[in-house]
Amino acid sequence: MTSSGWIIMFVSVLGVSALLLWCIIKVLKSPEEAEHLHGFEKATPDLKPKD
After folding, report:
1. Diameter of the chain by CA atoms?
2. How many CA atoms lie within 13 Å of 19's alpha carbon, on the beta-carbon side?
């Protein structure tokens, strides 16, 4: 493998690893965000009583 290939591979792996680490930190540092979920219904529409 040429030196430019090694550089491209290193930059790619480093970028993906940094993105993964950022996502993990973002998820772990904001536990209160679970209360702000939108579009979640506790009962499905087919279980609602009909009038």
Report:
1. 72
2. 6
d(CA 22, CA 24): 6
Using one digit for the tens of pLDDT, what is the confidence trace for 10-45?
999 999 999 999 999 988 887 666 666 666 666 666
Dihedral sign of CA atoms 42, 44, 49, 50 in order: positive
- How is the chain classified by DSSP, letter by letter? --HHHHHHHHHHHHHHHHHHHHHHHHHHH-GGGGGG--S--SS-GGGSPP-
